[in-house]
Amino acid sequence: MELNLKPAFFLPINRTIVRTVKFSAGLFWQRTIFRVLSQVAPRHAIERAMRLMLTPPRQPFSDEELAVLEEASLMQVPLIPGRLIAWRWGRAADPAVVLVHGWGGRGTQLRGFIEPLLARGFSVVAYDAPGHGMTGGPESSLPHVLQGLNAVLDHLGPVHAIVGHSLGGAVAAMALAQRPAVKRAVLIAPPASLADSSRRIAAALQWPEALRAAMQRRIEYRFGLDWSGFEAEQASGEQPVLVIHDRQDREVPLGEGHRHARNWPRGRLLETSGLGHRRVLADPMVIEASVDFLAGDRS
Fold first, then answer.
1. Distances in Å between the alpha carbon of 225 and those of 142, 205, 218, 252, 278?
2. CA-to-CA distance for 21 and 16, rounded, in angstroms?
């Protein structure tokens, strides 16, 4: 899981200053609260850490995102419990490519891929994972996101390929390993270890390791799942996989992308530079390389 702890340096300077101040103050208070609770009320510290790990950040949709959604057909995918909101661009008869967003994201974050994929004869499906965007819900987690992707794949029937970003990339690899009928995947900045991701969050918030480990045990017990099962090496298959990762990614280290690429016998790695963790999704070269790969071109 990822925690967005960096100010948005691409914003105009006045908004950047405001957001930087809010970021610094919020991080200071989070660190202070956890430091105090760890000493005087460790059970409350663990509960608070669990809520943080299971609550994705939410942001309003931009006008550009809403305009993209107006061009799609709305889909409601059955999910236990409730339903999942998805959209489809293009003809249902064309091979489908499913876009999977990351932690705290939404399907429209990968909108840059839609038109290039349509131009190559694909249809495109994007969705908001449980706890995210228009699907909503009180909480989310890697198992929630994986359940959402599997629900979409079951609902669609045959799917040509998956494109996943960040946590969505890790989840795409897990689903791909269990679905040999899906022919290809592109994994963009995929984390390789749920435990290591939690350690990065713990380091940012200055949690003692005892608190982080206790939080992990509680979440494992609640879901009945051992986090050791969410390592990159636990999901592999024979399909071609392209991993794209930026050298300056400050949220998911480049080495985690290397782990995914090495783990797939037909895995390939494309390293970029200067795009970070999120701008990589809008880079024309990244989009072109991804679409070429999904179409089976050798570039």
1. 11, 25, 10, 23, 29
2. 9
Reading phi first (left if > 0) and then psi (alpha if -120 to 50, else beta), residue 149 is in alpha
Structure tokens at 101: 């967003």
Architecture of domain 63-192+234-294: 3-Layer(aba) Sandwich (3.40)
Question: Distance (Å, rounded) from C-alpha 129 to C-alpha 74?
Answer: 15
Backbone angles phi, psi at 254, to 5 degrees: -55, -35
Instruction: Count Cβ atoms within 10 A of the Cβ of residue 163 and give its class: 0-12 exposed, 13-18 middle, 19 or more buried.
Output: buried
At 127, list the tokens. 């969705």
Token pair for residue 206?
A: 């200055």
Cα separation, 172 vs 8, whole angstroms: 27
Rounded to whole angstroms, how far apart are CA atoms 213 and 210? 5
Directed axis angle between helix 42-53 and helix 209-223, to 10°?
60
pLDDT digits (tens, 9 = 90+) for 191-216: 999 999 999 999 988 889 999 999 99
| Gyration radius from the chain CA atoms | 19
Strand order across the beta sheet in which 161-165 lies: 73-78, 83-89, 123-127, 96-100, 161-165, 184-188, 241-246, 267-272
Cα–Cα distance, 285 to 299 (Å, whole number): 11
**pLDDT tens profile 34-75:** 787 778 888 888 899 989 899 998 888 999 999 999 999 999
